[in-house]
Amino acid sequence: MKLPDKQTSVEAAIAHVKDGDTVMLGGFGVPGTPFTLIHALVHHGARNLTIVKNDANEPNMGVDHLLQSGLVSRLITTHLGLNAHAIELMNSGQIKVEFNAQGILAERIRAGGAGLGGFLSDIGIGTELAEGKQVIEQGSKTYIVEPALRANVALLHAARADSFGNLAYVATARNFNPLMAMAADCVIAEAEAVLPLGGLAPDDVHTTGVFVDHVAALGALSKEYAVVQR
Amino acid sequence: MVARAAREIQPGMVVNLGIGLPTKVVNHLPANFPVCLHTENGLAGIGPTLPPDEADRNLIDAGGAYVSTIPGSAFFDSATSFALVRSGRLDLTMLGAFEVAANGDLANWKIPGKFSPGVGGGIELAQKARRVAVLTTHTDRAGNSKLKAQCTLPLTAQACVVRIFTDMAVIDVGPNGFTLVEIAQGVTVAEVIDATDAPLHVPDTQLPIF
Lengths: 230, 210
Fold this sequence. Notes:
The complex is a heterodimer.
Chain A: H1 10-14, E1 22-25, H2 35-44, E2 49-52, H3 63-68, E3 72-77, H4 84-91, E4 96-99, H5 102-113, E5 118-121, E6 135-138, E7 141-147, E8 151-162, E9 167-168, H6 177-180, E10 184-195, E11 214-217
Parallel strand pairs in A: 1-2, 1-8, 2-3, 3-4, 8-10, 10-11
Antiparallel strand pairs in A: 5-7, 6-7, 8-9
Chain B: H1 2-6, E1 14-17, E2 36-39, E3 43-47, E4 68-75, H2 78-86, E5 92-95, E6 99-101, E7 106-107, H3 122-128, E8 132-135, E9 147-148, E10 161-165, E11 169-174, E12 177-183, H4 189-194, E13 200-201
Parallel strand pairs in B: 1-2, 1-5, 5-8, 6-9, 8-10, 12-13
Antiparallel strand pairs in B: 2-3, 3-4, 6-7, 10-11, 11-12
């Protein structure tokens, strides 16, 4: 037996994104952000997108290119503190922003990828983040019902992959990537190296290729992947 | 004040230092001090901060600073990182504040109409760390006290703060509200009372000076 080959180009993979889609983007700051796939998505031009990402990167980087292109109508995120441009778009009503507590966003995505409808949490009770959310009593405690979150497409960044789409991340570039890998109908990974089958030892795989639909090898990395000079 | 706050960290603790002033606490820990520092974006065992020319592009803390690993460090995904937080594995977190109330309420994420970048991981840290300390200037830039009878800004978490380190004093937060426990060199008790917008209990005993 032989595992199937899922290698494709960035351009061919991104063509799966349609107008109105919800698109998850891996990454926390620069590490783990699929900058090349994001550029391809801007060029592809699918509109009215809902983007799910921890943050909006920084001005003129990553998610900010999508926001500037006018393709995004809604952003589900945890923190925009490093991108004043995103905050402007939010304040002027050009994009709708839904803030989630960071671990709640991660867990909603994990639940979506684990075939669950949601979960119970007491995070945010007594604050405005709980307003409007369904609450239930369980035992003697009050919990917020947090719905699972899924997407039409997830765009991921891995350090290494193999041709089946097994993925391995490095350092803090892991973050939301392995969670989003489980939570979308179409999962596209860019990888700094795509190895032949067997190139990743089974114990070194962080995301099984079962979750991944398309894997694209990156050439030389653009400046966006580099250390940010502040 | 940062040096005083660093003495709050006990050997063996798992600690998360919030963005801003609290991240500077690490600079005041003795070399080889036995502590595990956690950052929300997926690292337990944070090593020293690195300058850009020595940085690893894939290795940052939750504030975006380039950090490093130490022997024994581990990386994990964001769901695991917050499972660790919500299940009470953090012995201590130190956070910044816009306002702290005498009942321990904390407001540190939103000033309606002025500042609303999102809450990040702050709610979970404030609500679930076993001990929540605040590290902040005693007053804001306009001179208004950050220590209040009640918070006026949207809350991060209710009744979570147990100790406050400011440039003027160390103040405990308990069932009786604010209690002065230490005072900064050159500051008088009257000045601390004057800069605090809530009743401040002052013990009869000699206050330690930091």
